Amino acid sequence: RSCLGLTPALTARRLSKSRKAPKSHYITVRQRQPLLMFFSHEKVNPEHLALLLKSEWKLSYVTPLYQFRHTQLKSYSRQLSAFIAAEKQQGFAVEVDGSQSNFRVSFSVVQGMTETEDDAETVLIQVRAGFLRPISEAQRSVWSGWLTCVNGNSDYLCSLPKDFICLPLFGSSGSEVLTTLVQSWFQKMFDCCFGPLEMNNTCLQWLAALWTNCHPESSIQHLKMIWTLPVVPPLQITYTVNPKDAWKLWSSVRKDPCEENKEEEGVSIDIEDVMRFMQGLKSHFYRHFRLDLSAGCLKQVSTALGSATFSGRVKISNSQYILSTLTLLTECALFKMPV
Amino acid sequence: MDESIKRTMQRLVRRIPNQLLKPTLDKWGRLTAAQKQSLDFTQPKWALTERLLALCEENEWTAKHIIELEMIYVIDNPNQGMWYAFQLMDPEDDAASVELAQFKEQFKSHLRELVKHVSVKIKKHTDEAVWIRIAWGDGFTRPNHLKPTYVVHHLQTPYVFVSSLTSKQKPLLSQALVLSTRYNVIKDANLSGRKLTAIRDLLMRQYQQVFPTKFPSPLTEKNETVSNPCIEKEQSGAAANRLQMACEAFGDGELPQLQSAVYKLETKFKDPTNKTMTEQEEPFKCVIKFASTNLLESLKQCATSGIASTPVTPLLSSIPLKGRNYFVITDNGPGPTTQMHTSQK
């Protein structure tokens, strides 16, 4: 069953050439801007938020879920617990500190992690393990994961048939075996498929620029980028820029802000700005080492606000910018999804 | 048996890989033929350790014996841990005539003057290197044999290589070294790596260097169908040229294995397309770290493959040329200049 057949919005599924500058969203407290007050992210459960910020997440994309209901989470919790138990009985190596542990799954909704009306609410899944029954809340969490959609392309979302829920970005943290089990349960239940979300050059460069753009409000401490060059043995180059200088370079490559109409939309950032920023960094490097970084592959970007790797591992360290980061990642996931 | 001896022995045996255990023990020569026979080297490590501890008790080995064994192992396997190079400067007139016996005695007595509890063991290796093992204590504690500092010095050269030295111990060691080698100053040589042999070879220029002379092209022409002989010829000429320049910059044959090089750049940002940044007075601050399992080989390949433009920039060729892998780069010349002048602090 192709859930994407004849969707007019397919052409819209590409990385934006321009996006809004990350505004700090104080998502755990009341929005400061009255305009946005009625407009989602009123309040995210601080516990959920802390969990999202605590771990590094391995990302995947997920195709739209067929007949997924946010009202059925209790039942899903039971079913997934049972599924894991059954797989374990069949000898699936679900070993977490001794083989005798029981697993309990809980699904919950993370209210407020959305930007538009079309975004489906984020779903958080936690797996706890313990030796005794019943497993209490306090028992050790051995795996967590979430499915989200922040600022998903509305043309695309609206073009989906009614029975599909699109939560294209999946993050997981914990035992790989459990990740595989959770994914195969989703595949069976909701007829979807998962795939690794690699973060290409463009995506990592966007993150570098978006984070640097936040510097005046929230210090990035450093802008660190890691490239590898295809020689034998491989050469790894770590380029760490002083935060102030990164910001200076960033502001110098931005379009003249006066030209822009500053509506409630906020300041927008263009892919050209990002490219000029990276070009500036590369040319400064070239001037010293006569070595072309474009010949290599950007593997990692990190600042105090977060880090992301080529292999699709992401850590978001600052709650204020979580939504803009997730917007970009949602876009990447939609882009990566097979048609 | 003393608990600390037991622990030192345990740690040491754990450190030595299984296949090296037998030759190291043989070289040490403290086991009787019968005891040697009783050791089964196919056994797992923990069982061997137990057996050696029993022998330790039986033979009444002291800390001295264990240190001997440790030094044999470390001297034979010097490419472990992180080594830092130091350079002695400003020699006294008699610096060139310092002999091993004199150095040994002087070093020990100077260090003991500075630190109350210290255990120093000095051993000369076949390649003229003097190996010094220092276990540090202080006014109240006995020397800690679990965290010894190793120092390697080639007499009559200004180079000293040190591993596992804390910042607290550094001035003490520096003073003892300066006094016993008859130099006046010791400074950081800005070179470090995991392979002692590599950083020694770099500093002492013990690797195959290539000098800028014309030499026959190493590229052998293959008998492929040549689409355009002129282009082919020009390209192979350029490739040979790149290879020559890469060899001149980094050397030929097997290159000393360095793991990293770090450049702290505090230079002006100059880019004709970016007026705002170019007009900035302040330098653009960043740190660049190159890392590889064999850095010089990787850099050389960058130059031969064309990823790095040739001739190789002095910043990169300074690694082998100056025997350094840590640099602070600042702008030298005042005012705008078309060429980049850099100074290396």
Provide a concise account of the structure shown.
The complex is a heterodimer of chains A (339) and B (345). Chain A contains eight helices and 15 strands.
Count of extended strands of chain A: 15
Q: How much helicity do the residues of chain A have?
A: 25-40%
Quaternary structure type: heterodimer
Give Rg of chain B in angstroms: 26 Å
General form of chain A: globular
Distance between the termini of chain B: 52 Å
CATH class of the largest domain in chain B: Alpha Beta
Q: What average pLDDT do the residues of chain B reach?
A: 87
Largest interface: A-B, 32 and 39 residues
Structural class of chain B: alpha+beta
> How many helix segments of chain A?
8
Q: Main beta sheet of chain B, described?
A: 6 strands, antiparallel
Alpha-beta content class of chain A:
alpha+beta
CATH topology of the largest domain in chain B: S-adenosylmethionine decarboxylase
**Uncertain spans of chain A, ≥5 residues at pLDDT below 50?**
1-12, 27-41
Count of individual domains of chain A: 2
Note poorly predicted spans of chain B: 333-345
Q: Beta-sheet strand percentage of chain B?
A: 15-25%
Q: What's the architecture of the largest domain in chain B in CATH terms?
A: 4-Layer Sandwich
Describe this entry's structure for a reader.
- The complex is a heterodimer of chains A (339) and B (345).
- With 339 residues, chain A is an alpha+beta fold.
- Chain A folds into 2 domains: 8-197 and 331-336, no CATH class; 201-310, no CATH class.
- Chain A has 8 helices and 15 strands.
- In chain A, strands 2, 4, 5, 6, 8, 9, 10, 11, 13, 14 and 15 form an 11-stranded antiparallel β-sheet that branches. In chain A, strands 1-12 form a two-stranded antiparallel sheet.
- In chain A, α2 crosses α4 (176-190) and α5 packs across α7.
- Chain B has 345 residues and is α+β, with helices and mostly antiparallel strands.
- Chain B is 41% helix and 21% strand.
- Chain B has a 6-stranded antiparallel β-sheet with strand order 2-3-4-5-1-6, sandwiched between helices.
- In chain B, α1 (3-15) packs antiparallel against α4 (45-59) and α9 (229-250) runs antiparallel to α11 (295-305).
- The radius of gyration of chain B is 26 Å and the shape is globular.
- Mean pLDDT of chain B is 87; it is low at 333-345.
- The chains are: A alpha+beta (339), B alpha+beta (345).
- The interface between A and B is large, with 32 and 39 residues.
